[in-house]
Write a structure and sequence with these properties.
The chain is mainly alpha-helical and 790 residues long. It contains nine helices and no strands. Helices cover 93% and strands 0% of the residues.
Length: 790
């Protein structure tokens, strides 16, 4: 059984063993004093003093609370409780000091992070300024580059013109030089023959032997010259093939520039149209407001006119009643005159029946001709429609081919990306260096690349399927064009046949019309008798007509007045509706002005993108054109070597032919040399005159050719300088773009760093708040003598 002392010690937290050494009276006194308080504490389940911050449930066993709840307490018990509370307070103060140190550390980190953010934001401002400067520098260099491209094009045109002049002069000079060489060779040959003839017959055999040896040498030289010419022609053929390929590439680049230029022009036209449309929408809104005001102003006089028109109608109806009585008497006179006229009209009717048959024949002929014309028109319309369908199909083929080219390019890009990604992932996985953030970023990048690699195969499959579909569409469209072309040919044949039928049908129609004209002349004779009869009827009818005219005038006036009244009333109603409708259109017009503004902004973005594409296309054209010019220079250099080689071949051939002729002459005309000597001297004189004449024509052409060579050299030097400037500008553009990209990358890093620092500051502020809350809880517990605040 638990003793009273143990029970009290358990619930009070104070040892009672010193009291146990006293007298029984003392123990009983302590029990009598403490037990009621302990029992009261048991009823509320009191907890011992604690430094933990939490809600207090029950009575605190600190000194103050023990005195408040137990009344008279023994001094030793009070001292023991005070000591225990002092220990708890000391422990709490230690915990508070640790928390305060942590709070100070967090505050310092927050201040450091905030300072870092301020520094990064200042760097961001500097980066923005640097990016703006780099963008302006890039635009300036691109502008200078474009101007240089234009200058290069001008220099190319000038150089091409000079080379064309050079080729023209060379072409004109070549036959003259050949003619001069031939004349000089002939003259030399004649002189040699004269010398040979004068040496005498005795030396002829020796000359024949020497000529035979020389012929062998010349033939060997001619063969070598021909081989050299053949080799040079082969080199030119290869170079010209390469030049054709480069020209094709340059033409493709030029077409791309033309397409991009057209796209920019179209986008600019669309922008101008949208701006015009926006201006028109605003003008329409303003005009609508003005129309609403004018319509309201016009409504009042319309209402006044409607009232006046009603009064005029009533007066006119009374006048009509009087005129109708007078008309009935005059109509009886008309009946008698009409009976006399009827007999003559019966004769005319008989003739007109005959005319009707003739007219029917003419109508049939006209119908046949019209049917032929209609059929011809229909066939021609079908021909036009088929031509339009063929043009549409050809346009569709062009569009499909363009889409196919784009899809094949995109497929190549995807395949290249598929080849690149595994190696890049392996490279990144092999990297282990860097801090924790760098490793996490690298891991995230690997995940992104792996995701992209997984998704790229379906994209390649889809792109391949699309390419196959486009290829199938092209086959279908080309088959459709073939079919339509066959249909067009058939319709054109039908049109030709109908055109041949038109002339006979027109002749039949002309004959029928002539017969109708004859019968109409007979009817005209009968009708000539009608005027006198008709005059009587006319007189009677005139009186009736006069009265009917009066009546009609009155009725017309009545109708006009009624119409005016109805119109006036309708105008009032219409004007009221017009005012309402015009006011209802105002919100729509206001929305139209806003939509036009949005469309203009969107089109300007599109135009900026197309202008960027045009710059890229111009760069490609410059590269392709430079390659063509280089190859043209190579071909020109090879062609420049041809005249010398051809001249060498021609001279060798001439020499061989001359030597062969000489040998033949020596062998066959040995006995006739003396007779020919006088003729040879005369021929030499003629040839020398011809040589002088040709030399006089060659000299100015040579001078002109030398001048053109100098001009071409200067133009080529200028071209090289401009191309060097263009290369420099290309490097400057690349450098400026690289600098801009680096600044933009630094801007992104700076932005990411600011975001990261702000996250750090937020986390530190949250931690600081938690620590400060704990400190406030401990301060409250210490203030209560070690008890937790309730």
């Amino acid at each position: 059984m638990v003793s009273i002392e143990s029970f009290v010690a358990t619930f009070s937290g104070v040892s009672l063993r010193p009291i146990a050494s006293k007298t029984v009276f003392t123990r009983r006194l302590a029990t009598a004093v403490i037990l009621p308080g302990i029992l009261t504490g048991m009823l509320v389940v009191a907890a011992p003093a604690s430094a933990e911050s939490g809600p207090a449930t029950g009575i605190c066993n600190g000194v103050v609370n023990q005195m408040a709840h137990r009344g008279m307490v023994q001094e030793n018990l009070l001292k023991a409780a005070a000591r225990k509370n002092a220990v708890v307070i000391t422990q709490l103060q230690g915990e508070r000091a640790a928390l305060q140190g942590e709070a100070d550390s967090i505050s310092a980190k927050i201040a450091e992070a905030t300072k870092t953010i301020v520094t990064l934001e200042a760097e961001a401002v500097q980066l923005d300024a640097a990016i703006k400067t780099a963008t302006e520098d890039l635009a300036s260099v691109i502008s200078q580059q474009a101007a240089t491209v234009i200058a290069v094009d001008g220099a190319k045109d000038a150089l091409a013109a000079l080379k064309a002049d050079q080729e023209s002069v060379t072409a004109e000079l070549a036959p003259l030089q050949k003619e001069l060489a031939d004349l000089q060779a002939a003259s030399a040959q004649l002189s040699e023959q004269v010398a040979t003839a004068t040496t005498g017959i005795a030396d002829k055999n020796a000359q024949i032997s020497a000529a035979t040896d020389a012929l062998t040498t010349l033939q060997s030289a001619a063969t070598k010259a021909a081989d050299n010419l053949t080799a040079k022609n082969s080199q030119i053929t290869v170079a010209e093939g390469e030049l054709a390929a480069l020209v094709a590439d340059a033409q493709g680049a030029e077409d791309a520039v033309a397409g991009a230029t057209q796209a920019v022009a179209d986008a600019d036209t669309e922008l101008q149209r949208l701006v015009t449309s926006g201006t028109a929408a605003q003008a329409e809104l303003d005009a609508q407001n003005a129309v609403v005001t004018a319509a309201k102003t016009a409504l009042t006089p319309l209402q006044e006119s409607a009232a006046a028109a009603g009064a005029a109608v009533t007066a006119k109806e009374a006048q009509i009643v009087t005129a109708q009585g007078e008309l009935e008497a005059l109509q009886g006179d008309v009946v008698e005159a009409e009976e006399a006229l009827a007999g003559k009209n019966a004769e005319i009717t008989t003739a007109q029946r005959a005319l009707t048959g003739l007219q029917a024949d003419a109508v049939k002929a006209a119908d046949a001709s019209a049917a032929n014309t209609a059929a011809l028109t229909a066939v021609n319309a079908e021909v036009t429609a088929l031509q339009a369908r063929i043009a549409t199909a050809n346009a569709d083929i062009t569009a499909k081919q363009s889409a196919l080219t784009t899809a094949e390019s995109e497929l190549a890009t995807l395949q290249a990306r598929k080849t690149f990604l595994p190696g890049e992932i392996t490279r990144l996985q092999g990297m282990n260096g860097g801090n924790r953030e760098t490793r996490e970023a690298r891991a995230a990048l690997i995940v992104v690349l792996q995701t992209e690699l997984k998704a790229i195969d379906p994209q390649i499959t889809d792109k391949t399927t699309k390419i196959k579909g486009l290829q199938g569409d092209l086959v279908t469209l080309q088959a459709a064009v073939t079919t339509l072309s066959a249909d067009l040919s058939k319709k054109q044949q039908e049109s030709s046949a109908l055109q041949q039928q038109a002339a006979p049908l027109q002749a039949t129609l002309t004959t029928a019309n002539a017969t109708v004209a004859t019968k109409e002349g007979e009817i005209a004779i009968l009708k000539n008798a009608l005027p006198s009869l008709s005059a009587a009827v006319t007189a009677a009818n005139s009186a009736v007509s006069s009265k009917q005219g009066e009546l009609t005038t009155l009725q017309d006036q009545l109708s006009v007045l009624r119409t005016a009244a109805a119109t006036a009333n309708s105008a009032v109603v219409d004007q009221e509706k017009l005012v309402a409708d015009l006011e209802a259109e105002l919100p729509t017009l206001t929305e139209g002005v806003a939509e036009a503004g949005e469309a203009i902004t969107a089109q300007r973005i599109v135009l900026d993108g197309l202008q960027s594409d045009l710059v890229d296309a111009n760069e490609d054209l410059v590269v392709a054109t430079a390659a063509v010019d280089t190859k043209k220079a190579e071909v020109t250099e090879l062609n420049g070597a041809l005249p010398d080689l051809r001249s060498a071949v021609q001279e060798a051939d001439v020499a061989v032919a001359a030597k062969q002729g000489e040998v033949s002459t020596l062998n066959t005309q040995l006995d006739g040399l003396v007779i020919q000597l006088a003729g040879l001297n005369s021929q030499i004189t003629v040839k020398e005159r011809e040589v002088l004449a040709v030399q006089a024509r060659v000299a100015p052409l040579l001078a002109q050719l030398d001048g053109l060579v100098d001009e071409i050299t200067a133009a080529e030097t200028q071209m090289k300088n401009l191309q060097s400037q263009l290369t420099t500008f290309d490097k400057q553009v690349t450098d400026a773009q690289t600098a801009l990209r680096n600044l933009e990358a630094q801007k992104k890093q700076n932005k990411d760093a600011i975001t990261a620092q702000r996250v750090i500051v937020k986390d530190l502020e949250n931690k600081l708040g938690s620590v400060q809350k704990a400190i406030r809880a401990i301060d409250g517990q210490i203030a209560l003598g070690g008890c937790v605040a309730s």
